Amino acid sequence: MGIVHLPEDTPYPSLIHCAICDQDISYEAATAGVHDGRRQQAFACDKHLSERSAFIVGWADYVVAQHEATVSSVDRFEGTDT
Amino acid sequence: MNSVYIEQRTHGYSSLSWDITRHLYARIYNSAGTAIVVAHKPSAFVASVRKQWLRLERQVRYERSSTLRPNRIRELTQALSRVEHIHMTAKPADEAPACDVFFVASLPQQIPPDCHTIYVINEINAALLAYLSTKMPPHSLIVRYDLPAQPD
Hints:
Number of domains of chain A: 1
Strand order of the largest sheet of chain A: 2-3
Number of strands of chain B: 6
Number of domains of chain B: 1
Largest sheet of chain B: 6 strands, parallel
CATH topology of chain B: Rossmann fold
Strand order of the largest sheet of chain B: 1-6-5-2-4-3
Number of helices of chain B: 4
Helix content of chain A: 25-40%
Distance between the termini of chain A: 50 Å
Radius of gyration of chain B: 16 Å
CATH architecture of chain B: 3-Layer(aba) Sandwich
Oligomer: heterodimer
Order of helices and strands of chain B: EHEHHEEEHE
Structural class of chain A: alpha+beta
Strand content of chain B: 15-25%
Radius of gyration of chain A: 15 Å
Order of helices and strands of chain A: EEEEEH
């Protein structure tokens, strides 16, 4: 149960970060979800899949946060350039 | 098998089609591309998942109407648009190229190049897993389902 294999070129931390509840979780308790702002795989607790509101709203909020982080980093980059 | 993620799942108390529906929702949320579901009876299973997909669509609609946060409303509107435009079929990819999720009884010889997720309900051996991983784009996902044992 959970994530049982990662690509070889991917960092292999001992715990995975849950994109929905912001906790560090084990690979056994994780499920693969959306892509983050750098097009990397994001993960969440498997239990969120059975939570209606947390699941739908959680991924939406995560994508919004990723988008805002990307926009602010671009703004910073352009700010230093001008 | 070195370039893909592999996830092992059981569907517990929820139905298999409901579990795949919710997992698939996250997979297609912000990425283009197709998915393949390998199941024993693809025609029956696609009907079941389509039904659950409509249920999920209603839930996303409900969540969108339940919030006052503009960013969340905008995001859920985009998610809803994506959910509404997902097409599922039990036909092979070459017969229905416009579809997003293909339900098949066995893996096709050619896997669409934009296929980032494969769900395997049937048993799968290590050799087939290795084959799949070479045919999929790097960092794709293979989801294997452990089905509960059938009573005698």
